[in-house]
Amino acid sequence: MTTNYSPQLWLYDTTLRDGTQREGLSVSIEDKLRIAKRLDQLGIPFIEGGWPGANPKDVQFFWQLQEDPLKHSEVVAFCSTRRPNTTAAEEPMLQAILAAGTRWVTIFGKSWDLHVTAGLKTTLEENLAMIRDTIEYLRSQGRRTIYDAEHWFDGYKHNPSYALQTLETAMASGAEWLVLCDTNGGTLPHEVSQIVQTVISHLSLVIGQETMTMPQIGIHTHNDSEMAVANAVAAVMAGAKMVQGTINGYGERCGNANLCSLIPNLQLKLGYSCIAEDQLTQLTEASRFVSEVVNLAPDEHAPFVGRSAFAHKGGIHVSAVERNPLTYEHIQPEQVGNRRRIVISEQSGLSNVLAKARSFGIELDQLKAEAKQILQRIKDLESEGFQFEAAEASFALLMHEALGGRPKFFEVKGFQVHCDLIEGKQASNALATIKVAVDGKNILEAAEGNGPVAALDAALRKALVNFYPQIATFDLTDYKVRILNGHTGTAAKTRVLVESGNGHQRWTTVGVSTNILEASYQAVVEGLEYGLLLHSQAAAAVKASS
Amino acid sequence: MTTNYSPQLWLYDTTLRDGTQREGLSVSIEDKLRIAKRLDQLGIPFIEGGWPGANPKDVQFFWQLQEDPLKHSEVVAFCSTRRPNTTAAEEPMLQAILAAGTRWVTIFGKSWDLHVTAGLKTTLEENLAMIRDTIEYLRSQGRRTIYDAEHWFDGYKHNPSYALQTLETAMASGAEWLVLCDTNGGTLPHEVSQIVQTVISHLSLVIGQETMTMPQIGIHTHNDSEMAVANAVAAVMAGAKMVQGTINGYGERCGNANLCSLIPNLQLKLGYSCIAEDQLTQLTEASRFVSEVVNLAPDEHAPFVGRSAFAHKGGIHVSAVERNPLTYEHIQPEQVGNRRRIVISEQSGLSNVLAKARSFGIELDQLKAEAKQILQRIKDLESEGFQFEAAEASFALLMHEALGGRPKFFEVKGFQVHCDLIEGKQASNALATIKVAVDGKNILEAAEGNGPVAALDAALRKALVNFYPQIATFDLTDYKVRILNGHTGTAAKTRVLVESGNGHQRWTTVGVSTNILEASYQAVVEGLEYGLLLHSQAAAAVKASS
């Protein structure tokens, strides 16, 4: 940690440990390293990397970080207290923790008497010994420790004096942070506030009687009551100095406290400095990056960083927003690296289309036919089933077209797709042949693929890659099909959303047809087109700035 | 409203008005009526149905409800105050409100001076006149009124005396509820608490000086700071008696206060009665029903009602949870109609598989080979890319198979799928032929479809529907493809998740292959199988109880 780093609040990220408990989420070691590096850039002081004693993958992770350390953040190894009726020195899990080579270690221990007696099946005294022994041992090995008081609030409610004893024990053993964990996620903010205040007063009294350093208080919340962020804020306002959470609120059950909501609330609204201002502007991108790495769709409606967080729908106040944003937006989206969006929908009026064009850097004259034309085209397409809100790339191409400026990178002259699946024989690949013209030159290519869409996509790229080498960096990253009007009795339309990426950006294009292959073809072709458009815009921007 | 209904808090649902502002959401009149009926059953006293003056669809909606009224809930028409410089009696929008024929009307008005002068471009005095005139007019026409103070908290912060004047005006005009709206969603709970208390004291003083009935205070929050629920709870604890929100938190930008989190918090934790106990047990189903009707995927990680809300992962404490649930769960899932789930994953141990089997009603003997066999099969399949967490129906079938009890509804003997897509000609449909055996009898059928998967699905159903007429009620409701290992360089596997439904239940099945058609085929066949299994289980249950 750089020595001049002194935030008012210490952020502690557990995306790589608690976050990975989320159902359906599973990350490789490389994924974890990529995320850790990004959190380092974001300015998060503590990054809980995993539990090397329990997860073999984590042993590797920590080892890699010893070889190639982070620049600023402290990476933290996580572990439980030693088991009952042994010593910390003889506990193999703790050896794995030491081998991880981190300066800091987080130890979690039981705060709730019931968990000790019924869960661990040991005595209340032994649990205190486990806490003391583990922390003292780690300190003797040169580690700085954070103590996570598991099930703190419920434990306190059921047996406050025992719960406080566990904290006192951790404190007396030299833990530098005592983190109160709402492990079940059931506590409410007013309770958190009152209990945190009680803890701080109580410990101050105890400290007063001994010669000890007062540890600082941290808070670790879960979202089972939709209060994780509110609880963390309540704790901070009651004196906690560390907040634990995850990017995008990933975690078990309903998730952990979402750092992407917490940080802007604490820093922009309550004035606690956590990370540098320019690091805060990276928040939205960090959120999307992490969702990308763990292969989860980003939550478009997430506070602060969601794609819809500053999306204004309905013609009524769009012009009012542009004139005076803070009367309709609670913060400036740029402060967290997000941006205002004007949503085009059935209810859109002309002002929405104009605003949207502006957001793509296109100035439309209100009186010109283009604007009305675009609006009409959108309405027509939407009534056919196109959904531009989810396919901004297709919308952008539509606008360029209406303005007469849609670049003609290629022209598909014809194609054919053939697929067979015969049970009992090995399933054959689909085969696509495509004829494309680039700069007046015809190219005929054929390709196989795992299915008709993949075959078409492969043939198209094969045909184009010599003219547009950047295509080699494009990937089809996702493919969604939604069946429209399924219950109307008429032929159901299929809407296909294809997501493409080039390594650092993703874009979505849409196709609609009663035939899924036709719909897929539309979306795939537009996906390539948009990728080429982005590339040419980036090249032009570089040229302009040199 | 039944006269003996006297909750301690009044719930006000705006799913059908504010909720529909969510990006990508669009509902038909029939959809709105279905939702309204469900909310009625749930016991929600106020249902804001729409804005008939602004939305033609809503005129129809209210008219339908006059013909076929709800049993208990009050349906409410929503509207703005009259425009400046006219009279309420001459305002056409208000005529539409009256035509809606509701007993209650909600009027929203400006609380923030800036919105009045810069937005509405009128005077502060005229705005007060608009509030007064509109409410008095509606009352003269026999309507009971609720006043929504738009942008209340920001308006109060910027010009408290004017904001309070708008409330006093509404109160003096006879509004029965004054709802403080955090329209920008930027307020924090401690601010809400303090401002609500201030409002209540202030109005009590004013009341004391006049002969007026004290209106009650309501709260309407948005989730831009991830505080919508916390803010609503803070307001209630400060004296508010009405909470406004939406099912699943649907709404513009980051959504409205989520009633599915609010109601259990208020009722189960804070002891405010809102709806009947047995109605609360319908909450989870109501949440899923609404998401189904609006065609949005349910949020699996939603507090209280999410599929993962009580999902326990990791072998460690699963046995502890079963012995003593309240030490690991903040409420009993059954209280909101949800259930505990044991998650099977890479980290699963034997105890997880046993617990999961139990949740499907299957008792496995710990020592028997089946349990270990299932675990091994799961691990093998998962390493190939199957993801059972998202495809519980496939998992259930796997378990039945391992126990030797997987019913053989049909056996696919062979099939062939052929599809052509020739640009320039009309895209032809895909054609599938299938040979199936049922009870030893062979059936050969062919069918066309909008694509290879649809054709296979259609042919299979055609072959089976005479034996299993219930198949006619099954629908393919969604189809998702995820490309696995896209960046490893080896042949990418494709995972297909197929969601099927029978009108009141949905289930997901999975298929994995390098060939998308093969993967789709697996998922489709299991989807039909599971639907038939459900049907036979339901039939057996009916028989058993008669």
What structural keywords apply?
546 residues, alpha/beta, 8-stranded parallel β-barrel, 40% helix, 18% strand, elongated
Task: Characterize this entry briefly.
The first copy, chain A, is 40% helix and 18% strand. Chain A contains 18 helices and 16 strands.
Characterise the protein shown here:
Chains A, B: GO terms for molecular function: acyltransferase activity. The structure is a homodimer of 546-residue chains. Chain A is an alpha/beta fold and 546 residues long. Chain A has 18 helices and 16 strands. An 8-stranded parallel barrel of chain A has the order 1-2-3-4-5-6-7-8, surrounded by 9 helices. In chain A, helix 2 links the parallel strand 2 and strand 3. The longest helix of chain A has 30 residues, at 516-545. The two termini of chain A are 37 Å apart. The relative contact order of chain A is 0.07.
Task: From the alpha carbons, calculate the radius of gyration of chain A and give it in angstroms.
Answer: 28 Å
Structural class of chain A: alpha/beta
Largest sheet of chain A: 8 strands, parallel, barrel
Give me the oligomer status.
homodimer
Strand content bin of chain A:
15-25%
Fraction of residues in H or I helices of chain A? 40-55%
Low-pLDDT stretches of chain A are 486-490
Q: Choose one word for the global shape of chain A.
A: elongated
Instruction: Name the chain pair whose interface involves the most residues.
Output: A-B, 108 and 109 residues
Alpha plus pi helix count of chain A:
18
What is the CA-CA span between the terminal residues of chain A?
37 Å
Strand order across the largest sheet of chain A: 1-2-3-4-5-6-7-8
Overall pLDDT of chain A: 87
Q: Find the count of extended strands of chain A (DSSP E, 2+ residues).
A: 16
